[in-house]
Design brief:
Number of strands: 4
Structural class: mainly alpha
InterPro entries: TPR-like_helical_dom_sf
Shape: elongated
Strand order of the largest sheet: 1-2
CATH topology of one domain: Serine Threonine Protein Phosphatase 5, Tetratricopeptide repeat
Order of helices and strands: HHHHEEEEHHHHHHHHH
Keywords: Signal
CATH superfamily of one domain: Tetratricopeptide repeat domain
Strand content: under 5%
Number of helices: 13
Mean pLDDT: 73
CATH class of one domain: Mainly Alpha
Helix content: 55-70%
Largest sheet: 2 strands, antiparallel
Protein name: Sel1 repeat family protein
Length: 380
């Protein structure tokens, strides 16, 4: 009876021993599986001292620079061994004892570590080796700023041809500022274009009758005088208008009178130049301008005193205007003598020689000479 019990116990122990061996093998395999990712992560952090293009989760880090490809040489320093290879080594000893039980256990163990990353080495290498562009977005940047503006040739407008510009007939106008009113601290007026126009057309329109190379230039001059006279009129009307403003307004209105723009130009021209002389009695130009307007308008005696005053102040053109008055008052000999005396003072003056010739030929207007060619452009 006792012998029978001992044989039964030994039989039970012999049947349980294969199960204990299987459980021990499984516990060892699980411990190895759990420790493998940790060891791999530690190896990655110790082997790489600088940031890599691929992080620990195998994600590609895209660079911020446009049109830049990721380097294909960046690879993780340590590859994690796939768990299925470790399981195969751990369970090889248990398959001899219980092949039917080890197969289900092995399949279960292989399914559990699925959430852990177990990418095959071939797939990781191909993903890293393929360059990947980050995009072709182009940020507009202004071209280089130069002294003449923005350079369009810098490539910002590739589809638009570069404009070609050619300059001709370049001229420079000096900048001129005059006080708006008398006294200190007054505002300034920019008369640069006005002075340039007066200088250009005065030889043609300052004396009567005016003389122009063609009808178009005469017309453009008339229209421009209208515009400029209207612009300066509010400043000249001011009771405190400066001498410079009054003198320029008188010149414009005097030329307008010679070009038959109306009696208003005659009246305004006389008023403005009279006020200018009161501000500066010793102005040779103002005295000449007033004497010119009076004498060429028929007031020979009234204009002569202003012309004599201008001659005394050294204004040469006033002497020519006195010769014109002598001609119109039947004093031809006096006019010829005056012009010849003036020629001796200024022998290089070609206009005086032409005027002497006109008087010798019996003409009455010494300013009836070929007009200089001017180029007055229409007003915008």
């Amino acid at each position: 009876m006792k012998a029978a019990n001992q044989s039964t116990l030994s039989t039970r122990l012999s049947t349980k021993s294969p199960k204990l061996v299987t459980l021990t093998a499984l516990a060892t395999a699980c411990a190895m599986l759990l420790s493998a990712p940790v060891n791999a992560a530690e190896a990655d952090t110790t082997a790489t001292s600088v940031p890599s293009a691929i992080d620990s989760s195998k994600r590609v880090i895209r660079l911020a620079r446009p049109n830049t490809a990721i380097s294909s040489t960046a690879q993780p320093s340590t590859q994690v061994t796939p768990p299925n290879l470790q399981l195969g080594a751990a369970t090889s000893n248990t398959q001899q004892n219980s092949p039917q039980q080890s197969a289900p256990q092995q399949s279960n163990v292989q399914q559990n570590p699925a959430p852990m990353r177990s990418t095959p080495p071939q797939m990781t290498a191909s993903a890293v080796a393929t360059p990947e562009l980050t995009g072709t977005t182009r940020v507009y940047e202004p071209g280089p700023l130069t002294a003449t503006g923005i350079d369009l040739r810098s490539g910002q407008l590739a589809s638009i041809p570069t404009p070609q510009v050619q300059l001709s007939d370049v001229s420079f106008v000096p900048t001129v500022f005059i006080p708006q009113q008398t006294g200190l601290g007054t505002d300034k007026l920019d008369v640069s274009l006005l002075d340039d126009f007066i200088k250009d057309v005065s030889p043609n329109a300052r004396h009567y009758p005016p003389n122009f190379p063609n009808r178009s230039q005469r017309h453009y001059t008339r229209e421009k005088i209208k515009v400029l006279a209207e612009w300066i009129e509010p400043y000249a009307k001011s009771p405190n208008a400066s001498y410079d403003v009054l003198l320029r307004a008188a010149k414009l209105n005097g030329m307008g009178r010679n070009l038959d723009l109306g009696s208003d130009y005659t009246v305004r021209g006389g008023q403005y130049v009279d006020r200018a002389i009161k501000l500066q009695p010793d102005s040779g130009e103002a005295n000449f301008l007033y004497g010119l307007m009076l004498s060429e308008g028929g007031g020979f005696k009234e204009g002569q005193k202003y012309l004599d005053r201008a001659v005394a102040l050294g204004y040469t053109e006033a002497e020519q205007s006195l010769a014109q008055s002598d001609l119109l008052t039947d004093r031809r000999d006096n006019a010829l003598e005056r012009l010849r005396r003036l020629e001796q003072k200024d022998p290089n003056n070609a206009v005086i020689r032409q005027q002497i010739k006109l008087v010798e030929e019996g003409k009455f207007y010494i300013w009836d000479i070929p007009a200089p060619n001017i180029n007055v452009r229409p007003s915008a």
